[in-house]
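REQUEST
  id: r-88c1
  op: predict_structure
  target: Phosphoribosylformylglycinamidine synthase subunit PurS
  payload:
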Amino acid sequence: MGRVLVQVMPKPEILDPQGKAVAAALPRLGLTGFVDVRQGKRFELVVEGPVTPEVLAQARKAAEKLLANPVIEDVVAVVDADAADQAAHAGASA
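RESPONSE
  id: r-88c1
  status: 200
  body:
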Protein backbone atom coordinates (compact mmCIF):
# COMPACT_ATOMS: atom_id res chain seq x y z
CA MET A 1 0.00 0.00 0.00
CA GLY A 2 1.18 3.49 -0.78
CA ARG A 3 0.42 6.85 0.77
CA VAL A 4 0.04 10.24 -0.87
CA LEU A 5 0.45 13.43 1.14
CA VAL A 6 -1.55 16.49 0.13
CA GLN A 7 -0.77 19.84 1.73
CA VAL A 8 -3.19 22.75 1.48
CA MET A 9 -2.44 26.26 2.73
CA PRO A 10 -4.46 29.46 2.92
CA LYS A 11 -3.70 31.83 0.06
CA PRO A 12 -1.20 34.52 1.12
CA GLU A 13 -3.82 37.28 0.98
CA ILE A 14 -6.23 35.40 3.28
CA LEU A 15 -6.19 36.21 6.99
CA ASP A 16 -5.07 33.21 9.06
CA PRO A 17 -6.32 33.70 12.64
CA GLN A 18 -5.09 30.29 13.80
CA GLY A 19 -1.62 31.03 12.49
CA LYS A 20 -1.65 34.44 14.19
CA ALA A 21 -2.66 32.83 17.51
CA VAL A 22 0.19 30.32 17.27
CA ALA A 23 2.66 33.08 16.32
CA ALA A 24 1.60 35.09 19.38
CA ALA A 25 1.94 32.06 21.69
CA LEU A 26 5.45 31.02 20.62
CA PRO A 27 7.32 33.87 22.40
CA ARG A 28 5.30 33.27 25.56
CA LEU A 29 6.68 29.72 25.53
CA GLY A 30 10.23 31.02 25.13
CA LEU A 31 10.37 30.02 21.47
CA THR A 32 11.74 33.03 19.61
CA GLY A 33 12.96 33.76 16.12
CA PHE A 34 9.74 32.89 14.32
CA VAL A 35 8.35 35.88 12.45
CA ASP A 36 5.14 34.39 11.02
CA VAL A 37 3.01 31.25 11.17
CA ARG A 38 0.52 29.99 8.61
CA GLN A 39 -1.63 27.00 9.47
CA GLY A 40 -2.73 24.65 6.73
CA LYS A 41 -4.18 21.20 6.25
CA ARG A 42 -2.50 17.86 5.58
CA PHE A 43 -4.28 14.90 4.05
CA GLU A 44 -2.95 11.35 3.78
CA LEU A 45 -4.52 9.32 1.00
CA VAL A 46 -3.86 5.56 1.12
CA VAL A 47 -3.79 3.66 -2.17
CA GLU A 48 -3.82 -0.09 -2.75
CA GLY A 49 -0.71 -0.30 -4.89
CA PRO A 50 2.42 1.75 -5.29
CA VAL A 51 2.31 5.50 -5.73
CA THR A 52 2.74 6.09 -9.46
CA PRO A 53 2.64 9.31 -11.48
CA GLU A 54 -0.96 8.40 -12.39
CA VAL A 55 -1.88 8.06 -8.71
CA LEU A 56 -0.27 11.43 -7.96
CA ALA A 57 -2.24 13.01 -10.83
CA GLN A 58 -5.49 11.58 -9.43
CA ALA A 59 -4.58 12.85 -5.95
CA ARG A 60 -3.90 16.33 -7.36
CA LYS A 61 -7.34 16.28 -9.02
CA ALA A 62 -8.92 15.24 -5.71
CA ALA A 63 -7.04 18.01 -3.93
CA GLU A 64 -8.09 20.68 -6.40
CA LYS A 65 -11.74 19.56 -6.63
CA LEU A 66 -12.48 18.44 -3.07
CA LEU A 67 -9.75 18.87 -0.47
CA ALA A 68 -8.98 22.55 -1.05
CA ASN A 69 -11.34 25.50 -1.30
CA PRO A 70 -9.90 27.24 -4.39
CA VAL A 71 -11.30 30.60 -3.33
CA ILE A 72 -9.17 30.80 -0.18
CA GLU A 73 -6.65 27.92 -0.38
CA ASP A 74 -3.81 26.67 -2.58
CA VAL A 75 -2.71 23.06 -3.02
CA VAL A 76 0.99 23.40 -2.24
CA ALA A 77 2.16 19.77 -2.41
CA VAL A 78 1.03 16.36 -3.62
CA VAL A 79 3.81 13.83 -2.96
CA ASP A 80 4.53 10.17 -2.37
CA ALA A 81 4.57 10.01 1.45
CA ASP A 82 7.03 7.13 1.66
CA ALA A 83 9.51 8.87 -0.66
CA ALA A 84 9.13 12.09 1.35
CA ASP A 85 9.73 10.18 4.60
CA GLN A 86 12.86 8.55 3.19
CA ALA A 87 14.20 11.89 1.97
CA ALA A 88 13.53 13.47 5.37
CA HIS A 89 15.32 10.66 7.19
CA ALA A 90 18.27 10.81 4.79
CA GLY A 91 18.57 14.56 5.36
CA ALA A 92 18.35 14.16 9.13
CA SER A 93 21.15 11.62 9.25
CA ALA A 94 23.51 13.64 7.03
